[in-house]
């Protein structure tokens, strides 16, 4: 049995056992319909967390080797796996805070010794242009990412968290990320945006067959908004598959992204009701 088959069996068993599958009154049929999408999503998340562990190891090795340029090149692509599965990662508040908190969350900002994770490493690489002060933080990040992977693999996914996760990703982008505050030192925000969009679209795609039969116009509208957002991001793709600095976005493109993000957040927030989970 290969890795994906093992994941599928484990995911299906955990979803079937999920107590949340019987939440909606009179919706036993809808609950059963959700079993396969939730199982498929757990496989997706497990693959992303495994990728996160592997990529973080590379980033940490570059930091500990003192290779600032290599660490900078690995920073944004390493974060994408985390950003794609953020609704699940955020179920573990302690790890989410340790891995992805921003300096604003700490009394002394960047100088606070309890400021850890990706953004502490980002600050060291771009603002201090050095790895000297962040090697211990890199070790801590590695341990936290491995812990996250272990916890997610043991987690029974709450249906409400998964279904609501698509909207949660867009709401976070709309509320804080569109301003550019997330990756404020590296300006690699567009990598995060793409991962957020992909994570939300993955959830929507898995649930789409359950919605399309009753509301095809809604599905067409959401698909169109995801497509427009993707086309806007594609303007800033670089030849190596990455993105230009967030500062290079025009005001017009920021406005388009903001509009689409807000529309997607609003539309995706109705998924729970459409699937009988309210």
From TrEMBL:
Signal peptide: 1-24
Presence of keyword Signal: yes
Record flagged with keyword Signal: yes
Residue intervals of the Imelysin-like domain: 38-271
Keywords: Signal
InterPro entries named among the record's database cross-references: EfeM/EfeO_iron_uptake, Imelysin-like, Imelysin-like_EfeO/Algp7, Imelysin_sf, Iron_uptake_EfeM/EfeO
Protein's cellular compartments: Cell envelope
Family in the record: Belongs to the EfeM/EfeO family.
Name listed for the protein in its UniProt record: Iron uptake system component EfeO
Lineage start: Bacteria, Pseudomonadati, Pseudomonadota, Alphaproteobacteria, Hyphomicrobiales
């Amino acid at each position: 049995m290969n890795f994906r088959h093992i994941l599928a069996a484990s995911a299906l068993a955990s979803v079937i056992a999920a107590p949340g599958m019987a939440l909606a009154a009179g919706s036993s049929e809808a609950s059963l319909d959700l079993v396969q999408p939730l199982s498929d999503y757990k496989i997706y998340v497990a693959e992303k967390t495994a990728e996160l562990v592997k990529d973080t190891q590379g980033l940490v090795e570059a930091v500990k080797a003192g290779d600032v340029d290599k660490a900078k090149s690995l920073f944004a692509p390493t974060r994408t796996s985390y950003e794609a599965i953020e609704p699940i990662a955020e179920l573990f508040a302690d790890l989410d805070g340790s891995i992805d908190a921003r300096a604003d969350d700490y009394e002394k900002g960047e100088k606070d010794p309890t400021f850890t994770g990706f953004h502490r490493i980002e600050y060291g690489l771009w603002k201090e242009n050095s790895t000297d002060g962040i090697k211990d933080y890199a070790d801590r990040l590695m341990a936290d990412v491995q812990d996250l992977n272990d916890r997610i693999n043991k987690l029974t996914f709450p249906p409400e968290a998964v279904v609501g996760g698509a909207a949660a990703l867009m709401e976070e982008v709309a509320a804080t990320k569109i301003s550019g505050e997330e990756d404020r030192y590296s300006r690699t925000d567009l990598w995060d945006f793409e991962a957020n969009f992909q994570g939300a679209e993955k959830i929507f795609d898995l649930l789409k067959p359950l919605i399309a039969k009753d509301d095809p116009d809604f599905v067409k509208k959401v698909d169109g908004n995801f497509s427009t957002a993707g086309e806007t991001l594609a303007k800033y793709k670089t030849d190596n598959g990455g993105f230009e600095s967030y500062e290079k976005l025009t005001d017009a493109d920021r406005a388009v992204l903001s509009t689409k993000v807000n529309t997607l957040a609003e539309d995706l927030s109705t998924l729970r009701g459409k699937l009988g989970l309210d």
